[in-house]
Write a structure and sequence with these properties.
Elements lengths: L6 E6 L3 E10 L2 E11 L14 H18 L7 E5 L1 H5 L3 H12 L3 E3 L2 H14 L8 E6 L4 E7 L2 E8 L3 H8 L7 H25 L3 E5 L1 H12 L7 E2 H14 L18 H15 L3 E5 L3 H13 L4 H12 L4 H18 L8 H13 L11 H11 L7 H12 L7 H6 L2 H20 L12 E5 L2 E5 L2 H6 L1 H16 L3 E4 L1
Parallel strand pairs: 1-4, 4-5, 6-9, 9-11, 13-14
Antiparallel strand pairs: 1-2, 2-3, 6-7, 7-8, 10-11, 12-13
Helix pairs in contact: 1-3, 4-10, 5-9, 6-9, 7-9, 8-9, 12-13, 12-17, 13-15, 13-17, 14-15, 15-17, 17-19
């Protein structure tokens, strides 16, 4: 179905927040609006790794303004992603509850690898198609992403724990720029690149592309002072480095042509650029104005047009861990049939709930590749901590919980660890998955008989033909045992 309303992407970065509103057109996006506000969220983490009240209020005020622009858009038309600062913040859940109310849409915290994937997608859509492999680098406020890929397909992705905000805070906190500090920052950044250097040099690339604020600012400074003929070059960086040392303080950078809001974090970002060129052997780099937020938009278009990367991720994981495809297909079909009968009554009508249940059914046995004993625990761990392209950390957490809860004793402790807003839907979805698994415990190819499921509050009434139950005494016994397990979760299972 053609898209009839705008879509929006929001990038909650460690240095600044970005909003892009676009209208999908055949083969491209028409940008309708862009907003950017410097928040320095990454600098608002205290010594205990918690967002300070001041940092939270500043970020929330920005999101309230963004909310005025996108709150009217329908569910699924807006995707907001949080990056390094929110990955690190120990009190991110408290921030997200308030932020989502102001924005009017959910916020996903994405892993560094998922951030790298989205950056690559955004950059690739902003470039003319060229042959060969490309290197994409993005220096954010708290992390640096590097990706090797071809056309629109990222192949190797890395996310390093350094960025312009964090490096500036560590080495240039008082604003002074001198040779000793700059070299120390470059060496520290080089140490971060060291573990990936050999692989990236071995793979090689035909073109290098830089995106986001730091690299765009470096390219602008080089062009303004004619230090590089085109883009960012190693020779140009050396001339810029000498100029920075001569200026000696971030207060002087604006006179040099650095944008005023970029000046306070420029030296830390510049040190990362210098280290990247030195350690990876980069000679020349073009820059792109497309970045994470554009990647989020194109990823969102894929979801709307049913080309969701998450479906490919689930299929790839099932193959990688040699899941019994026939069995999981049976469980998935039964879980979906049960879901459709109770979705409205149980307030699960959002398609995302059915999607989560289907993924959990397809991956519920993934942990058996580790060990059959307690395989639901192994599966939950894998799904929570694997790099899963397209998935946010919250989605992986919910998916992991459903797999953890699909058999044996109901994991109340793990349920209590979920955000309060997610607990009831996950509790109900896990009950549906449990029933589907029990009904297919014999792993037979024969189809189940027609069945009915109705719910009233916490009571589930499962209707099966009496003659079928009489012929399948083990299934009846399994359902009786399952009723005891579900009691722990606060459900009453009635079999008719």
């Amino acid at each position: 179905m053609p898209q009839t309303h705008p879509i929006a992407a929001i990038d909650l970065g460690s240095n600044s927040f970005h909003l892009v509103v676009a209208e999908p057109r055949p083969g491209h996006l028409k940008i309708l609006d862009r907003l950017r506000e410097v928040t320095r969220l990454g600098a608002g983490l205290d010594v205990e790794g918690r967002l300070t009240p001041e940092a939270m209020e500043s970020a929330l005020a920005c999101l309230q303004r963004f909310g005025e622009r996108v709150r009217h858009l329908p569910a699924g038309a807006v995707r907001a992603v949080g990056t390094n600062a929110l990955r690190r913040a120990r009190n991110s859940e408290a921030f997200l509850r308030r932020a989502e109310r102001l924005l009017g849409h959910p916020i996903d915290i994405v892993s560094g690898i998922e951030e790298a994937r989205l950056i690559y997608i955004g950059v690739s859509h902003g470039l003319a198609e060229v042959a060969g492999q490309r290197l994409v680098m993005d220096i954010g406020g708290g992390s640096t992403e590097l990706i090797l890929g071809r056309r629109f397909e990222p192949r190797i992705m890395e996310s390093l724990h350094m960025g312009c905000v964090s490096m500036t805070a560590q080495f240039f906190s008082d604003g002074r720029i001198d040779a000793k500090r700059l070299r120390a920052a470059e060496l520290a950044a080089g140490q971060e690149f060291e573990p990936i250097e050999e692989q990236f040099r071995r793979e090689g690339w035909q073109s290098a592309i830089g995106s986001s604020g730091t690299l765009l600012a470096v390219a602008d400074a080089l062009a303004l002072h004619k230090f590089s003929a085109e883009g960012i070059t190693r020779a140009g960086l050396q001339r810029l480095r000498a100029a920075l040392l001569e200026l000696g303080h971030v207060n002087q950078l604006a006179r040099f042509g650095i944008r005023e809001d970029r000046c306070p974090v420029f030296p830390g970002g510049f040190a990362v650029v210098m280290a990247a060129f030195e350690e990876l052997g980069i000679e020349q780099m073009q820059v792109s104005t497309s970045a994470l937020r554009e990647g989020v938009l194109y990823d969102l278009v894929g979801r709307i047009e049913h080309e969701d990367i998450r479906e490919h991720t689930v299929e790839a994981l099932a193959q990688r861990f040699q899941v019994d495809a026939a069995q999981t297909a049976r469980v998935s079909a039964t879980a979906e049939a049960l879901y459709l009968q109770v979705a409205e009554a149980w307030d699960l009508a959002d398609p995302a709930h059915g999607q989560l249940l289907r993924w959990a059914a397809r991956l519920h046995e993934i942990g058996s590749s580790v060990s059959h004993s307690q395989y639901q625990k192994h599966g939950a761990y894998l799904l929570q901590y694997l790099d899963m392209p397209g998935f946010s950390r919250g989605e992986q957490r919910r998916l992991g919980f459903l797999v953890r809860a699909h058999r044996r004793k109901f994991p109340l402790a793990e349920l209590a660890q979920l955000p309060e807003s997610e607990r009831e839907s996950c509790r109900r979805l896990s009950a549906l998955l449990r029933l589907a698994v029990v009904l297919h415990r014999a792993r037979r190819a024969q189809a189940l008989p027609a069945m009915g499921l109705s719910v009233a509050a916490a009571t589930l009434r499962l209707v099966l033909p009496k003659c079928w139950l009489d012929d399948h005494a083990l299934v009846a016994a399994d359902l009786d045992q399952e009723a005891d397990y579900l009691k722990t979760a606060g459900f009453k299972l009635r079999l008719r």
